[in-house]
Amino acid sequence: VMFDHVRISTGNFKDCITEQLELTIDYSDIFGNEDLDGYINNIIKMIDTLPDNAMILKSVLAVKLVMQLKILNIVNKNFIENMKKTFSHCPYIKDPIIRSYIHSGEDNKFDDFMRQHRFSKVDFDTQQMIHFINRFNMNKGLIDKNNNFFIQLIDQALRSTDDMIKANAWYLYKEWIRSDDVSPLFIEIEDNLRTFNTNELTRKDNIFILFSSADDGPVMVVSSQRLHDMLNPTKDTNWNSTCIYKSRHKMLPINLTQETLFSSKSHGKYALFPIFTASWRATRIKNIGI
């Protein structure tokens, strides 16, 4: 059955053909609606039933819904929680209008957290993983500036039991390592990359590049397992088995002492790789009492 025009209040578009579908939402029922939460929830549900091949349409409809709610200054309603649950995922969350509406103030809160911990060891909870993966997806310029924070996020997300988090983290990481600025670094250390072109990463095969706290300073190449061991050391952790290169623009192997790499006293306010400073210092005190 084909229609030139049809007006519906609710619907399920799961199996519809979207190739020539033009869909708009009539908001006339929003005024004076006694069941506003139910009305908006039905619209949210209807939008989300559109198939994945209509990602652009889904996003456009979601943005128009949010814009209508903003124009009418409709806030603090029960439907917001359902909207957050649905629109916190792609394709919706990529749009800044949607993100600012459902996570009002949260971007600033999370950005403050990232600034405070950009050179620290971080243990992410599930909500933080979801938010920061989305944040880096939206603004990849943040990755290099917060490289140590980003690498810890990716490593922990790839260890997550949540398949969606793992898939999103892997997609983001692949985009980063294939970018024009970063892919040459991986080409330089190609001998270490055993699974660069595979679809799956394993704990032993993840290869990460950590940028130091110094501008154009040394870079460290570590596997996921080495990263985990150094952030959670035991008395047997080998702090000398790191691959250090002169800088991201001169990938020449160099030797630097542990003190130079991990001691904050050796390089200004921060050590070259300050995410390891606390664990290195604790292990050093425990082992030799320094």
Word description of this protein:
This protein is α+β, with helices and mostly antiparallel strands and 290 residues long. The chain has 3 domains: 28-102; 105-179, no CATH class; 180-290, 3-Layer(aba) Sandwich (HECT-like ubiquitin ligase fold), CATH 3.40.1850. It contains 13 helices and 4 strands. The chain has helices spanning 36-48, 55-71, 79-87, 96-102, 106-117, 126-138, 141-145, 147-158, 163-177, 183-188, 224-231, 258-262, 277-288; strands at 207-211, 219-223, 243-247, 250-253. Strands 1-2-3-4 form a 4-stranded antiparallel sheet. A hairpin with a 2-residue loop joins strand 3 and strand 4 (250-253). Helix 1 packs parallel to helix 3 (79-87), helix 6 (126-138) packs parallel to helix 9 and helix 8 crosses helix 9 (163-177). The longest helix is centred in the first third of the chain and has 17 residues, at 55-71. It is elongated. 26% of the residues are buried. Mean pLDDT is 81; it is low at 195-204. It holds the Pfam family SopA. It comes from Escherichia coli. This is SopA family protein.
CATH superfamily of the largest domain: HECT-like ubiquitin ligase
The largest sheet has its strands arranged as 1-2-3-4
What would the average pLDDT be, to the nearest integer?
Answer: 81
Major beta-sheet overview: 4 strands, antiparallel
Q: How big is the Rg? A: 24 Å
The number of helical elements comes to: 13
So what's the overall shape? elongated
- What low-confidence regions span 5 or more consecutive residues with pLDDT below 50? 195-204
- How many domains is the backbone divided into? 3
Structural class: alpha+beta
Q: What order do the helices and strands follow?
A: HHHHHHHHHHEEHEEHH
